[in-house]
Design brief:
single chain, alpha/beta, Rossmann fold, eight-stranded mixed sheet, four-stranded mixed sheet, 6 helices, 14 strands, about 25% helix, globular
Length: about 200
C-alpha cells in the first residue's frame, strides 16, 4: 500500500493524479494505524513549516513516519514535505522537524531575488542515487517556495538548483528522499522521478 499522507496542508489531488499517470494507486492516509500498514510513504505539502508540523502532530503521525523510515520503507517528501524531513526551520520562529535528514530550512536570500522562487528552473545532478536514475543535468522542474533546505552533509544532496546561489533541490539518504519542486507539475521529468521512487 502506498500512503499519501493527509495532514491538512497539502495538494493531495494533484499528487494523486500524477501517480494515476503512472498507473499506480495511492491511498489517502491520516491515522497512525493506517500509516503503519503502508509499504511506501508520500509526504506532500504546501504552506508554512510550523503549520505542517502541527498538522502531523495533531494527527499523531510524527512517530509513525519516523518508525516507517527507520524500518527502511521508501519515503519521499514533496515541496514542504521535503523540508519537514529535516531537523528544523526558522520560518516564523524556530520549529523542529522530523529529523530524518541532517540540516535546516531557512529563507532564501540574495540581492534582487524575487521571493517566492516560482516557476521553471534547472536541476544540476551532483550525485548518483536510484531516485535520480536517468535524470539529466539541465532538466527543468517547477518550483514554488520561499524557504530552502541547507543540509549539513553534502552526500545527501542529489541535485542543486541556482537561485541567488545553489540550494538542494533533490535529496536522498537510503530510502528517505525529497524533491523541493512539484513533480506533479514538472511534466516528464517529474513523472520520471516519481517512477524512480516507486522502484526504490
Amino acid at each position: 500500500m502506498i500512503a499519501l499522507i493527509d495532514y491538512g496542508i497539502s495538494n493531495l489531488r494533484s499528487v494523486q493524479k500524477a501517480f494515476e499517470h503512472l498507473d499506480t494507486a495511492v491511498t489517502l492516509v491520516d491515522t497512525p494505524d493506517r500509516l503503519a500498514q503502508a509499504d511506501r510513504l508520500i509526504l506532500p505539502g504546501v504552506g508554512a513549516f510550523p503549520a505542517g508540523m502541527k498538522g502531523l502532530q495533531e494527527r499523531g503521525l510524527i512517530e509513525p513516519i519516523k518508525q516507517a523510515a527507520h524500518q527502511g520503507k521508501p519515503l519521499i517528501g514533496i515541496c514542504l514535505g521535503m523540508q519537514l524531513l529535516f531537523e528544523s526551520s526558522d520560518e516564523m520562529g524556530e520549529t523542529a522537524g522530523l529529523g530524518l535528514l541532517p540540516g535546516r530550512v531557512t529563507r532564501m536570500v540574495g540581492s534582487g531575488l524575487k521571493i517566492p522562487h516560482m516557476g521553471w528552473n534547472q536541476l544540476d545532478v551532483v550525485r548518483e542515487h536510484p531516485l535520480a536514475d536517468d535524470l539529466v543535468s539541465g532538466s527543468y522542474a517547477y518550483f514554488v517556495h520561499s524557504y530552502a533546505v541547507y543540509p549539513d552533509r553534502s552526500d545527501i544532496i542529489l541535485a542543486t538548483t541556482e537561485y541567488g546561489g545553489p540550494f538542494a533541490s533533490i535529496v536522498g539518504q537510503g530510502k528517505v528522499c525529497g524533491l523541493q519542486f512539484h513533480p506533479e507539475k514538472s511534466q516528464a521529468v517529474g513523472l520520471k522521478l516519481l517512477r524512480n521512487f516507486l522502484n526504490l
